[in-house]
Amino acid sequence: MSEFGDSFSTSGDHKPGDKELQEFLMVEKQKAQFNAQIHEFNDFCWDKCVEKTGNKLDSKTETCLTNCVDRFIDVSLLITNRFAQLLQKSAGV
Fold first, then answer.
1. Cα→Cα distances 6→1, 2, 18, 22, 83, Å
2. Are 29 and 1 in contact (CB under 8 A)?
3. In 3-state terms, what secondary structure has residue 61?
4. Are 49 and 65 in contact (CB under 8 A)?
5. DSSP secondary-structure letter at 30?
6. How far apart are CA 35 and CA 41, in angstroms?
7. Model's pTM, two decimal places?
């Protein structure tokens, strides 16, 4: 967040929209980081599970991908809950 936040915090005159813009940029940066993690995870699962491509997945590949998706859902829920906790904490301050 520093590359966005620093440019706003250095000026002496803050406009009313600056804080909202900073918050918006922070949320967008978090979304981008989350999406990057999703893509990295997808690449990892593909490389780990899919040895050859064809018309059908064999049972080993299907099981591997299923487990990978299950772990992805677990991690997504964990991250989502953590973001919710952080937002609640910041809203209460």
1. 8, 6, 12, 10, 23
2. yes
3. helix
4. yes
5. H
6. 10
7. 0.50
Q: Residue count of the chain, please give it.
A: 93
Distance CA 66, CA 4 (A): 39
Which residues fall within 8 angstroms of residue 18, CB to CB, at 6 or more apart?
Answer: 8
Mean pLDDT of the chain: 80
- Whether 8 has a pLDDT exceeding 90, the answer reads no
Q: What is the residue type of 83?
A: F
Phi, psi dihedral angles at 64 (to 5 degrees): -60, -45
3-state DSSP of 10-25: CCCCCCHHHHHHHHHH
pLDDT in tens, 50-66: 988 888 889 999 899 88
* Residues 6 or more apart whose Cβ sits within 8 Å of residue 69: 45
